[in-house]
Amino acid sequence: MSLEEIVTPLTTLWKFDYESNIKALRSLYETAKKEQWNAATDIPWELEINKEGVGDILDPTGERFPKYDFVKALSDEKREQFAARRSAWTLSQFLHGEQGALLCCGQLIEAVPDIDGKLYAATQVVDEARHVEVFHRYITRLDQVYSIEPSLHKVLNAILQADLWQMKCVGMQVITESLAMGTFKSMKESTQDDLLRNVVELTAQDEARHVSYGLIYMKEELPRMPDPDRERVEDFALGAVRLLVGGGGDTETTGGGGILSSRKLVYSEVGIDYDEAMAEIGAKANDPEFANTGPRMFDDYVVPQLQRVGLVTDRVAPGYRELGFDV
Ligand SMILES: [Fe+2]
Ligand SMILES: [Fe+2]
Question: What's the CA-to-centroid distance between 78 and ligand 2, angstroms?
């Protein structure tokens, strides 16, 4: 399936007062114009990819996966292929997320009520187009593009189909892009592939700006919303976090859940029995030698941002605690 149609309820607002009214957004717009880069010419595409050194968010130090029996059983060549495919799978999810961001920002231009918010969103559309370009180009050199994980697909569609623009902004800029920014920063530190380091370094700079937009705008906007609408945004945020934590790929033992996942392909294509591999990962989940020592993106980036804009209220805090967050 290369084309999917969804119907989105979008209210388009003209704004005939062109004076800036949210100065912090106007200055972010100025920064965004200055920090544009060109995915075709500012990335050293002439570099060879170090396929085994690419690394990914599930094993940032590259120390955990080689210890599993199902990886040890592979030949050197298959092990390199497996590493490249796992990385391509993870990066494919980001590629789909980048397209989701591109579509969402197009909607925000229309839906937000402030001129500063519209102008800034226009710069983010170009940023996201560049990210789609750069990740697609990198992934196809590494391996191939894998299909979108069902949980991520659900969250992105919920953002695109939300009837309140504040839900879109929280779902995309505050939640999804905090996750992306944290992940790209971590990849930048851990990858041994110079080409990927260049890609994620430039992308993370843009994502930091996108998160700032969400934080600045939502701090301004949430207090001026009527209570019932604000509560809907709080619930939307918790729902998105629940979906992403439950199947979003920061653990290999969840996800899938009966739905055929493209993740299975990554394993089966190099001759690994997916169910056996998952059983081994599950059995060793509490073994300190196999502990996931990578950064905890939701604890370190996503939930603190939601707290910062005031969306983790007493009313919804129990829901976050149920998911294991210390709020
Ligand atoms: Fe992006
Ligand atoms: Fe972004």
Answer: 34
Mean pLDDT of the 235-252 span: 77
CA 19 vs CA 22, 26, 68, 121, 217: distances in Å: 9, 10, 60, 17, 17
Instruction: Name the packing angle between helices 115-142 and 76-111 (round to 10°).
Output: 160
Calculate how far, in angstroms, residue 90's C-alpha sits from the geometric centre of ligand 1: 15
Ligand number nearest to the C-alpha of 123 = 2
Whether pTM exceeds 0.90: yes
CATH superfamily of 25-33+53-322: Ribonucleotide Reductase, subunit A (1.10.620.20)
Cβ proximity of 158 and 241 under 8 Å = no
What residues pack around ion ligand 1 (CB closer than 5 A)?
98, 101, 128, 131
pLDDT score, position 57: 67
In the predicted structure, residue 294 carries a pLDDT above the cut 80: no
Domain ranges of the chain: 25-33+53-322
